[in-house]
Amino acid sequence: MSLAGSRYGAFTPARIVAADHDLGGRNIIVTGGASGIGLETARALAGAGADVMLAVRDRAAGERAAVAINESIGADRVVAGTLDLASLSSVAAFVDAWGERPLDVLINNAGVMACPLDYTSDDLEMQIGVNHFGHFLLSLGLARALMNAAEEDRAARVVALSSIGHRRSPIHFDDIHYRQRPYDKWEAYGQSKTANALFAVGFDARFAEHGVNANAVMPGGIMTPLQRHLTQDEMSALGWIDAEGKVREGFKTPEQGASTSVWAAVADELEGEGGLYLEDCSVALPWTPEKPHQGVMDHAQDPEAADRLWTISEQTVGASL
Hints:
about 40% helix, single chain
């Protein structure tokens, strides 16, 4: 099978992608797994036999989601853990609680989109603070657990959720956190999604030789709680919904949106492959103006930018290899 694609498509449900895999005995963490595509990602993986932890800010919501998933699959394989990605101390506490227990897959799914200007408890701009820096510290802290899960014939995996929103902005290295420049919520979102893609490039470059691969994922257009900061008028202006509030054709259901994350986590054809940007259960093609909502731009795959971001990220979170 060509690495460029798979037998699945843009609208394949996540449970179908996972169905041919026996994930018994594998440990998986899904951040933001209490709702949206995170919940459906966890459901599909647990349904295939994996033990899944939902790493969530709202522990009660996470526990409700875990119960619902366990009931739907008829097994007790999902639990919840507390993780606030807007607090580096919370991330560190989560990492300490996990310890060095083998971790087969880490899915960095949680995120915030197009929020008003705000800062994390560590004074980082909220979107890149949560979407990138919180996940960076989490991934680095769990690197030993991931390496402990790697086997001679099977690498552990990190899945970083990016977005076609990365086309809105590269990393503004001279003012990442909007200390001087005017804040634009969509530019800030785009910068954070570029950071997610560059993180996969940087992480894979450093950990592939230790048996851990990382890839970025574009899940597609899906209506989830990610849109909580947008009004109906804004979503209508973007063309996401019509005047009656109906979602436009081409959007995916949350379960369909979870399929590429699941594919990145389990696909045999991705064994040993990393630093890629995936969409619709395949490796993305280069972005073109003719298809503005698909593909990946060069600035999100640039190894020099990935290295520069890695260095800044280590300095920002106070952790290094």
